[in-house]
Amino acid sequence: MVNKTSRNQCKAAASSFIKMRSLPSAEHPAKKAGAVSAVFLIFLQLMLYSSCASVGQHYAGIDRQLKSGNAEEAFDRLMEEAPSAYADRDALLFQLDAGMLAHYAGDYEESKKYLGEAERSIENLYAKSITLTAASYLSNDTITEYSGEDYEDVYINVFNALNYFFLGSTEGALVEIRRIDEKLKLLGIKYGTEITSTQEALLDSGVSVPYDSEAASVNFTNSALARYLGMLFYRSQNLKDDARIDRDYLKLAFANQPSVYDFKIPDSIEDELDIPQGKARLNVISFTGLSPEKQAEEIRIPITYGSSGEIRWIKISIPVLREKPDLVASAKVVFDTGEQFHLEVIEKMGAVAAETIKQNEALIYLKTILRATSKTTASIIFDEASQMQGAGNDMGLLFSLLSIGTQMYADLSEQADLRVSHYFPATAWVGGITLDPGIYSYSVVYYSASGKPVHQDRFENILVSAEGLNLSESICIK
Length: 478
What we know:
- By secondary structure, the chain is of the alpha+beta class.
- 49% of the residues lie in helices and 18% in strands.
- The protein contains 14 helices and ten strands.
- It has helices at 4-21, 31-50, 59-67, 71-85, 91-104, 108-129, 150-166, 170-187, 192-204, 224-236, 240-256, 349-356, 358-389, 394-412; strands at residues 280-288, 293-305, 310-322, 330-335, 340-342, 344-348, 427-435, 438-447, 453-464, 470-476.
- The strands form three sheets. The chain has a four-stranded mixed beta sheet with strand order 6-7-1-10. A four-stranded antiparallel beta sheet has the order 5-4-8-9, with no helix packed on it.
- A hairpin with a 4-residue loop joins strand 2 (293-305) and strand 3 (310-322).
- It is elongated.
């Protein structure tokens, strides 16, 4: 981790060399030693950057527990390792991971607490970020506070809605669902000001960078998963019109967003608001897999500098999403009485992540170019100073070394910020069946693509009532 002391040392070293350049060379008998010191400081900073510990080393053991079906043990292990696993700048990551593992463990009160803290952290960090100028982007993203991705912010409310429901507060659940709608309405314009200010900063520095506004546009304004839950919660409150509106918006989510919903709408949706008098409806919601991870993608792009038209190639490293493997290809609910029904995909949460991250990716791309350009500009300045001093001049050698060192620093210090929460699921499944009121036992059985069972979630003696909402949740992380 690069600390303030090392950064200040480098600033002081650069300042001293500027002063040295303005004085006659005879006044600097120790200039060769100064050159060595400067290069040493540069490489020291490189070493500090390279030695930054990455978040995520603690996940392996927790993942093993979760994939074995031991969510409680996974949560306990996370809490044990948290003090050493998460830096202060990664507080939001801890809140998200803890909130999701607590939910999987059935500790809905703890989950609600941590996810609520995470939502407040995202709001505070966003408020802080919009007060910053483009100049503040010159630090490496990995040393700033993690402020969250938009899909994380949206799914906080999905799982807090479920937390509230399982804690007995349907009204609290509906508040969370309404929050999702508000966030999605703001998503399309959220990054406009920041992207514009960064583009202006690039233009001010004399760099022209292509920007594809179409590729950065977000085509996700309606969550079928959120609408499904809203429909069920409104139905349980006997708010028929509100339930019907959410059902219709659910259908629009599929119709209007084919890039996210590239599969058919669940058949069971048609039966959710048509329950015969005296009958009961059992709904099952399931979550499988884990959300995407980030990997670094390195790109080299040519940048033209100044009136001379000199071209320098700069390296930028940006984070891209990569889906994690998921063994589950299908799922069904099997009753002890022999009845059964299939669960159907209602939201590919990884696809939502990829769609909602577009604008942030565009901003990261521009910020990274701005940062890399600034670093390379320093190398060019030292190179020009070296040429002015002459090849056989000690001062020329000094500036030549600085030019090489700063270019190496520009390359090696560029690190993509790969931080992202670890325990949001990849896929949401839903299903329902109309039954006579009574007590039922059933299993949710998960299958691989070859049809082999990979997991079974058992529910014993569940009361299915004609009143209210009968909703069971099943988790399969494989």
